[in-house]
Amino acid sequence: MTRERTDTRVREKVDLAGAASLAEARRIRSLVNRHKRPRGILTWEAKYGEDSTGEPAVWIWFHVNDEEKISQPRIGELTDFVENVRSSLLEAKLGRWPYVGFRNPPLH
To answer: I need a surface site. Which of 73, 83, 89, 97 has the fewest CB within 10 A?
Structure first.
């Protein structure tokens, strides 16, 4: 079973089998928001649940403006950003494995 909570900045989807507490979700949101997002990242979303091994995980998806031209330096900038966010989440010892990546913005 999945439930979805939406606000103006972050969409969070929670798989109840691996659900995050409100405090945990707030902590993750705070950790992610500490990072200055590169230009072209419009919003982000978090999904909580169990990964394929049955362990608790969080998926962080940054929504990227897909109309922007992607150059090698830009790819490097976005890769560095994702690695920094993932490192922060790992250093926080959340008890969840962080999967971090990019997606197109959701359709509304």
So the answer is: 73
